[in-house]
Amino acid sequence: MILAQLSDPHLRAGEEEPARALAAAVDTVLGLETLPDAVVVTGDISDNADPREYALARELLAPLPMPVHALPGNHDDASVFEAPSSTLAGGIRLILCDSTIPGEAGGRLDVSWIDDQLGDEAAPAILAMHHPPFPIAIPALDEIGLAPDDARQLGALLARRPQVRRVICGHVHRTVSAVVGGCGVLALTSTNLQARLDIGAAEYTMVHEPPQIAVHVLTGGEIVSHVQPVVR
Fold first, then answer.
1. Domains, the chain, ranges and CATH?
2. Helix (H, G, I), strand (E, B) or coil at 77
3. What is the pLDDT of residues 40-90, one digit of tens each?
4. What is the DSSP string of 31-99?
5. pTM of the model
6. In a 10 Å sphere around its CB, with 0-12 CB exposed, 13-18 middle and 19+ buried, how is residue 103 labelled?
7. CA-CA distance, 12 to 48, in Å (whole number)?
């Protein structure tokens, strides 16, 4: 199983740069030696929840020949997206979560719903969501993160559900990894602008740092995650 991840394109109607950046990320996926079984975009597809931005996203993602799963982020209109669900991708259970709160930047998570989706299956699973379930030590971004109680509940679920091999997310516009409940978690950069690394900062600054995609691979019953630069 190979799963490619893109995140936070923040498409804006009338602006070319975010669209060019997402097109470059799509080209990076298509340039992989072995194409993924599926692609997931972990939120903030649109910057302003403008219908034109979603139409542009569909156009830019259309060259991908494999299933593409898009999740809402805090900049999105969640009603545009399919309801949270789970699906099989190359033999792995991919659980697509909605961590958004309408009108708010921070996130909540229905952990009991995730538990139900896992059911009695022992097959490896990946959880995909927008908000990372851990603080990244940049207070300005942590203040708009996942509700701490929900993050604790997710950690407890992961500790008792070892079939979840990876949690993948976006939101913070940086590639950051952590371990939550014994499970590896990867937050991925935006396809466009990144948040400057400024530990302890009360504000965050968006900068033109290199974007990346992630490639998650099931091998030997475990998930390994590669981060691949996007050439623009």
1. 2-229 (3.60.21.10)
2. coil
3. 999 999 999 999 999 999 999 999 999 999 999 999 999 999 999 999 888
4. TSSS--SEEEEES--BSS--HHHHHHHHHHHTT--S-EEEE--TTS-GGGSPPSEEEEETTEEEEE---
5. 0.97
6. exposed
7. 7
